[in-house]
Design a protein that fits this description.
This protein has 9 helices and 25 strands. The chain is of the alpha/beta class.
Length: 393
């Protein structure tokens, strides 16, 4: 009798919990599981700004997904899913192979707004997929070496939490390189940075950007990248030796034309169990999905992390033919911690915000606990807490 096949597409936050559950024996023993992911390591987004600012080394924020898969008896394939056929219960891989499944779970993250603007793909450094951020520090160091004694001009596109953290940690990196005079410009299309956040958090971030000598341009969309120039709406130009693209999320192109029910923006619609509303054998978690009951929920790592245990338990139930009972209920407000590059962090919770070294110490402790949970190459502890990493950005 053919063993049922669970296919995991993507190495996102939520799938770490599924792999952990497989290693712990929470899934049926007769299940065949395959993980398709572009990289052997999972780069934890919550610590990326700290990598840029030199607080962390790459190995400190990278989880060995291949080893975690191996601990759970999962076949790991370093590829990507190029096409999705949920009706035929199959996917097409980057190498051209067609792979069938009985259950499919996708945790592939979101795309990036503006990625297809003229000149962007060939010029900018992307922070999504998150593994691309490992190339950021070497690129900054190469640019500094080329510039010599001449000042550098760096542009960060996107004034959300990621853009703010990256701009300030780029400043920290440049200070370490002895380049305090280099220019950093943050460009945000909305009228304000952190436009969907609390005013207290925004004021704290604006203060940090002023202290860090980051120029802020708001209310201006980027139209194109033209060589070493960032061309804004109405013709304004910002010179740039390096552009870091940290704009908001966009629906992954994989879902276009797939047949999965989707919202107006192209994100597949899932119910509270993280199951597709049109194809019950397909689950989608993290930034790649749109929750029917919470259509305005932010695309943020904290929610992907909290969906992990829900996805794990519901996939295990589906694989065993049991009723799927666990539901994801996003909590509001959530704790957010922004690393501002000078040894401090902004801690925000609802309308409240405060800045201090204590906040960075708290962030560091939470982030390191998340990494430690999934970094073992053998089965993780039997009963880990389900809220680990709850402050991930």
């Amino acid at each position: 009798m053919k063993r049922p096949h669970l296919l995991l597409a993507g190495g996102g936050h939520a799938h770490l919990f599924v792999l952990e559950g497989l290693a712990q024996g929470r899934f049926p023993a007769d299940l065949t599981v395959t993980l398709i992911a572009p990289d052997r390591g999972h780069v934890y987004s919550g610590m990326v700004p700290g990598l840029v600012g030199s607080r962390y080394r790459p190995e400190e924020l990278t989880i060995d997904v291949a080893a975690l898969a191996r601990a759970g008896g999962v076949a790991f394939r370093q590829e990507t899913v190029q096409a999705l056929d949920p009706g035929g219960r199959a996917v097409t891989l980057s190498g051209g192979e067609r792979l069938t499944f009985d259950l499919l779970s996708l945790a592939i993250g979101a795309g990036t707004v503006g990625a297809d603007l003229p000149g962007v793909r060939g010029t900018a450094l992307f922070v999504k997929p998150i593994d691309r951020t490992l190339a950021l520090v070497p690129a900054v160091e190469r640019a500094a070496a080329r510039a010599g004694r001449d000042p550098l001009s760096l542009v960060v596109a996107g004034g959300g939490a990621a853009g703010v953290e990256l701009a300030l940690n780029l400043r920290a990196r440049l200070r370490l390189l002895g380049r305090a005079a280099d220019r950093i410009t943050l460009v945000e299309a909305q009228r304000r940075i952190l436009h969907d956040g609390a005013s207290a958090t925004r004021r704290a971030a604006e203060s940090a950007l002023r202290t860090g000598r980051v120029e802020v341009v708001t209310g201006r969309e980027i139209e194109r990248l033209d060589g070493g120039r960032v061309v804004l709406a109405e013709g304004a130009v910002v010179e740039a030796d390096l552009v870091v693209w940290a704009t908001g999320p966009a629906a992954p192109a994989l879902f276009a034309g797939s047949g999965l029910a989707a919202d107006a923006a192209g994100y597949p619609l899932v119910d509270a169990t993280l199951r597709s509303v049109s194809h019950p054998e397909v689950f989608v978690a993290g930034d790649a999905a749109s929750l029917v009951d919470h259509p305005m929920l932010a695309k943020a790592g904290v929610y992907a992390v909290r969906q992990g245990p829900v996805l794990r338990d519901n996939l295990a139930a589906a694989a065993a033919g049991r009723p799927i009972r666990r539901r994801f209920r996003p909590r509001h407000p959530v704790l957010a911690l922004l690393n501002i590059g000078d040894g401090r962090a902004i801690c925000s919770y609802g309308p409240l915000a405060a800045t201090g070294r204590w906040a960075m110490a708290l962030k560091d402790r939470i982030d390191r606990r998340f990494i430690a949970r999934f970094s073992a190459t053998t089965a993780p502890p039997a009963s880990p807490p389900d809220n680990a990493g709850s402050s991930a950005p």
